[in-house]
Amino acid sequence: MSFSSSWLTLREPYDRSARNVAVLDAVATWAAGRPSIAVVDLACGLGSTLRAVTERLPKRQDWRLVDNDLSLLARTAGLARPPDLTVTAVPVDLARDLEMALDGPVELVTTSALLDLVSHDWLDRLATEAAARRLPVYAALSYDGLATLDPVDPLDAAVIDAVNQHQRGDKGFGPALGPAAAATAPARFELVGYTVTHGASDWVFGPKDAEIQTEVLTGWAVAAREIGSSSIADIIGWLARRRDLIAAGRSSMRVGHVDFFASPTGTR
Ligand SMILES: C[S@@+](CC[C@H](N)C(=O)[O-])C[C@H]1O[C@@H](n2cnc3c(N)ncnc32)[C@H](O)[C@@H]1O
């Protein structure tokens, strides 16, 4: 599954404001007092997690950015960064070679908008491999299946149901957890001995956020068409009504996400 750089760029400021501050504080508290830190960011995209977290970590940071999309990885090479920060972009297919991404001098694992794409088995593998290395994990922005639109349209619920079904399709890691990731992932880490801090990181789009609303709702219409539980005519009509509301500056929406920081019990 591929993600365009324009989509990742569009969503980054909304992700940034959505990230749960208590969870970010837990990461900062864990890292406080260290002279330096080595981080691996799984499925880094364009490096939004690095930009969101860097200020909360010790000044000297070594980041290993991992993704299987060479074009996104290539763009992370041009990131502006302070002198005490080194960044290495590493192409890895995480479905196949997760362990390779975690090996070596790593002290913190980060990821965002990944865990809803992965399967139950892959999540187990991540928790087990991280626990074996006693690595803390900051995982942001897992979709939780709860979305609301304002004003309400009679077809919203059917479209959101279809989106949630679509989210459970295979995204390259086996059948995806989709909306179940938000509850399953923190619980899975607790089961292998982690202390978990978690909290909501919902996207909140107001009437002025027209471009991202249009992008998200168009993606939902495509997903609903692929699932096929509503007719194509109904979906086209729904998208046209929603776009009219956006154009009139009358549309708002909230899309539920969850962040967590899992720290191996017994470490700060
Ligand atoms: C929703 S994007 C999130 C990107 C970034 N973490 C962010 O929050 O902006 C999902 C990312 O997962 C990456 N990805 C998907 N499947 C992958 C795989 N098998 N191995 C490595 N990366 C993968 C995509 O290339 C994409 O960058």
Could you characterize what this model shows?
By secondary structure, the chain is an alpha/beta fold. It has helices spanning 5-18, 21-31, 48-53, 70-76, 94-102, 120-132, 156-167, 181-191, 210-227, 232-247, and strands at residues 36-42, 60-67, 85-91, 108-112, 137-150, 194-200, 203-205, 252-264. Strands 1, 2, 3, 4, 5, 6, 7 and 8 form an eight-stranded mixed sheet that branches. Helix 5 packs parallel to helix 6, helix 7 (156-167) crosses helix 9 (210-227) and helix 9 (210-227) runs antiparallel to helix 10 (232-247). The mean pLDDT is 96.
Q: How are the SSEs ordered, and which strands pair?
A:
Layout: H1 5-18, H2 21-31, E1 36-42, H3 48-53, E2 60-67, H4 70-76, E3 85-91, H5 94-102, E4 108-112, H6 120-132, E5 137-150, H7 156-167, H8 181-191, E6 194-200, E7 203-205, H9 210-227, H10 232-247, E8 252-264
Bound molecules: S-adenosylmethionine.
- What would you call the structural class? alpha/beta
The average pLDDT value, as a whole number, equals 96
Silhouette:
globular
Helical fraction equals: 40-55%
**What summary fits the major beta sheet?**
8 strands, mixed
Provide the succession of SSEs: HHEHEHEHEHEHHEEHHE
The N- and C-terminal alpha carbons lie at a distance of 36 Å
Strand content: 15-25%
User: Could you give the count of β-strands?
Assistant: 8
> What small-molecule ligands were found?
S-adenosylmethionine
> Which residues sit in consecutive blocks of at least 5 with pLDDT less than 50?
none
Gyration radius, in Å: 19 Å
* Count of individual helical segments: 10
